[in-house]
Design brief:
Elements (H helix, E strand, L loop, with lengths): L3 E9 L5 H9 L17 E7 L2 E7 L9 H15 L3 E7 L6 H13 L4 E7 L6 H14 L4 E4 L8 H11 L17 H17 L7 E10 L5 E9 L2 H8 L4 H18 L3 E9 L7 H6 L9
Parallel strand pairs: 1-3, 1-4, 4-5, 5-6, 8-9
Antiparallel strand pairs: 2-3, 7-8
Length: about 300
């Protein structure tokens, strides 16, 4: 039996459920999932197997109207991911319908989608009545000639298998692109940083804006099989540093504990995680910070 392999780009508005779907497809947590928008900064690739087909998912940042350099670099990465893919899947939230953001993505697809297979996945179907779903499906398909439409719940897994099987059939014949046991092509240092950033985002909720990043400065594999990981949390103001540290350092301590536990589960070994918080007022304008996140600094210009 011949093998198949190719790239699938998941696009949609922030919070449409792309990361949840990616993690469900791959069967492991490779993309950060929080209730705050714009958490996926880099084009994370997760690898899923379906029979003899290797599906490489490009989980792009959510598409939105960019205001700052970081926003522009994220949007450029999202459309870049779609332009490089064999198949594009547009995810739309059932209960939100055709928003201004979806309108703008449909316009972008008119150009990027030319000559490509584009599918529609209506997510969070458990939140609306079936008549609403049918109406939304018809309206979206009237607006764009989707190759196929799927009704899914990424969180609960409904419809995900059917989507994965269909995607596998659309990809070109050819050798696999990654070793069979590899689930993501992000360096482990970056995945570790993303896990810590997720815990910070969840813990701080509305208190801290997106002007915060986490970098893995040092990774040491020890003889006893454990890993020592040093990370730096960069914020833009002194006031933010205090928020991240919390009263007597309690916040950063609990974030470190949660991130360490998840890393240990992910890596299957003991982890010693050390977090530092540093103020860098201009990190949003430093090209090396963008490289760390897998984004192109020039795209934000």
């Amino acid at each position: 039996m011949s093998t198949r392999a190719g790239f699938v780009a998941l696009i949609g508005e922030p919070n449409a459920g792309k990361s949840t779907l990616l993690n469900r497809m791959v069967g492991a947590k490779v993309s950060i999932v929080t209730h705050k928008v714009q958490t996926t900064r880099a084009r994370i690739r997760g690898v899923a197997m379906e029979g003899e087909t290797q599906i490489v998912f490009v989980d792009t940042p959510g598409l939105f109207k960019p205001r700052r350099r970081l926003d522009r670099a994220m949007v450029a990465a999202a459309w870049g991911g779609a332009a490089d893919a064999d198949v594009i899947v547009l995810m739309v939230e059932a209960h939100r319908g055709i928003t201004e953001g979806v309108e703008s993505i449909l316009e972008g697809l008119a150009d990027i989608g030319k000559g490509r297979t584009v599918a529609l996945a209506i997510n969070k179907i458990d939140r609306v009545a079936s008549e609403t779903l049918l109406g939304l499906t018809k309206e979206l398909n009237d607006r764009y000639a989707f190759a196929e439409t799927f009704m899914i719940s990424a969180e609960k897994g409904h419809g995900v298998d059917a989507l994965r099987q269909w995607l596998a059939q659309q990809l070109p014949e050819g050798p696999w692109l990654y070793p069979e046991d590899q689930i993501a092509d992000l360096p482990m240092r970056m995945i570790a940083a993303e896990m810590t950033r997720e815990k910070l985002t969840l813990r701080l909720h509305q208190e801290l804006p997106y002007q915060m990043t986490v970098e893995t400065e040092n990774w040491e594999d020890r003889k006893d099989g454990s890993a020592k990981i040093d990370q730096v949390i960069y914020v833009v103001r002194d006031g933010h540093k205090g928020i991240v540290l919390g009263h007597k350092g309690e916040t950063v301590k609990s974030v470190g504990k949660a991130a360490r536990e998840e890393l240990e589960e992910f890596l299957g070994r003991k982890v010693h995680l050390f977090l530092q918080v540093k103020v860098r007022p201009n990190w949003l304008e430093e090209s090396e910070r963008y490289s760390e996140m897998g984004l192109d600094f020039k795209d934000g210009a």
